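Figure 2 data, in text form.
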Amino acid sequence: MSIDKCRAQFPALNQKIDDTQPIFFDGPGGSHPSQAVLNAIIGYLSTSNSNLGGAYFSSRQTEQTMIRAREAAKDLYCAKDVNEIVFGANATSLSFMMSRVLSKTWQQGDEIIVTALDHYSNVSPWVIEANKAGVIVHQVKVNEEDCTLDYKHLSRLINLKTRLIACSYASNITGSIVDVTKVIELTKSNSNALIYVDAVHLAPHQLIDVQALGCDFLVSSAYKYFGPHLGVLFAKAQHLNELSPDKVAPAKNINPNRWETGTQNYEAMAGLSATVDYLSSLAGVEGGSRRDKLETAFQNIAMYEHELSRLFLNKINAYPQITLYGIKDKGRLNERTPTFAFTIKGVNPRAVSEFFGAHYVCIWDGHFYAPGLINQLGLTESGGVIRVGCMHYNTVDEVEYFFVLLDKFLEM
């Protein structure tokens, strides 16, 4: 699919604000949905808005909406079974829920491991429950040179008392991808700890395969990959069977429904199905399973995003007053997403995002809820970093224009 045909499917990309077409480099904070996703959400609310368990048509349609969403999530994650998929408000809410449940199995003196690379939605839930249970918390350091996880430090922290390792699949600040397979190998060879993976930032850029990884849990938020606000959790069936979530007493004690308290966001589930179908359409081929199409689609996404990354890295490295954090080597594009964090000497990051915002170019600044990394880099007091994040719907021309504006800012 050409970039023009791709962008034509996104109303947000084609709007005009004060006669100007905005540019969105804020994808790591939240992406835009395609028209097909919007149509699916409106379609559900227009015709099928109901709850489960009713003896009438719209209730049955709602049940089918949920079933289709689980099938779509199963294909996206390559889970073994649809019943290994749990929905929630967002990834953060699901992580808090799982922390409360898993902490019931911890004892005083046990240990858990979090990382300095993570968004704190995958740190705070575990730390809060660990403090309640008298469990020791260790935090893995980051290699400051390229903002990758320090695997040697991780290996020193793992022991037979370790009950959980919570790690990001990719940094939402620097785009550094974590070798989760290596994390799991280190964990399983030195402990019986469970692995909880935050794939929120990685999901729009790389196809996930939970079976190949062998992780126990993996979570993402669909609005980060062109869908609605919906949290999507994979959990191995054995854990869903053995653990005990809090639920309303009359609710059926069956998986995965007993993990989804209250009336669910069924319109978002309708949108999720359309989201996964949109992603699979980027394969540009007919026939084959949805998972097969997703594999081809994400290969296409990676090739295109690498082109954007090479261009960005070529240009940003030419500015002596700019410090780029993360992987700078264009030969290591497979180890990063097209998300870039940098600072300008003597300039507050907020001033940069405000300048670009005035020109209808959306970028972010700050700590991005990942204070562990910002603290280790010594950037907390100076306002954090400037973040520019590309998605597959961004263009070469948009990247070029970013640097035109950057030159104008620096001239000031």
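Caption note: The two ends are 40 Å apart (CA to CA).
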